[in-house]
């Protein structure tokens, strides 16, 4: 459904460089609402359906657009089902369930084993050693010392 939705909003050289949407509706389509397929979303839980300390949103994955309304089709990870909602916030830098990509991952690459091919510049091949290098945040943090607090109420 999403592929057809997008295709209907693309220019077609066969019909005077108009979109199929434009031919049917006699107006140019808006693409302001279009989002990256598969990105992570946060689905708002309405106040009526949550208790005071319940989270305000659930994590999901963007699947596409609802045909009959201005809503989005989203896979709700917690519920394990597809939901249709307009109250969605998008994180287009995170995809699906994969962790965000950070510079921290560079520590996992063994740069000594890089096999650089002179005939194909920019096509570096590397092997992961399987050994995880320790980083400061991997070490156990000692517990803070216990101190007695004298509040003057003896």
UniProtKB/TrEMBL annotation:
InterPro entries: Retrotran_Ty1/copia-like, SH3_retrovirus. It comes from the Eukaryota. Residues 112-154 are annotated as: Disordered. Residues 39-96 form the Retroviral polymerase SH3-like domain. PANTHER family: TRANSPOSASE, PUTATIVE-RELATED, TRANSPOSON-ENCODED PROTEIN WITH RIBONUCLEASE H-LIKE AND RETROVIRUS ZINC FINGER-LIKE DOMAINS. This is Retroviral polymerase SH3-like domain-containing protein. It comes from Peronospora matthiolae.
């Amino acid at each position: 459904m999403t592929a057809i939705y997008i295709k209907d909003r693309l220019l077609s050289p066969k019909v005077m460089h108009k979109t199929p949407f434009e031919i049917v509706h006699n107006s140019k389509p808006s693409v302001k609402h279009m989002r990256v397929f598969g990105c992570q979303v946060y689905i708002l839980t309405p106040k009526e359906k949550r208790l005071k300390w319940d989270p305000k949103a659930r994590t999901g994955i963007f699947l596409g657009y609802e045909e009959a309304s201005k809503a989005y089709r989203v896979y709700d990870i917690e519920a394990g089902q597809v939901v249709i909602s307009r109250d969605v916030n998008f994180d287009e830098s995170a995809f699906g369930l994969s962790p965000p990509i950070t510079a921290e991952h560079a520590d996992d690459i063994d740069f000594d084993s890089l096999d650089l091919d002179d005939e194909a510049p920019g096509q570096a091949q590397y092997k992961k050693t399987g050994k995880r290098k320790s980083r400061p945040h991997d070490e156990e943090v000692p517990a803070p010392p216990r101190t007695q607090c004298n509040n003057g109420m003896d």
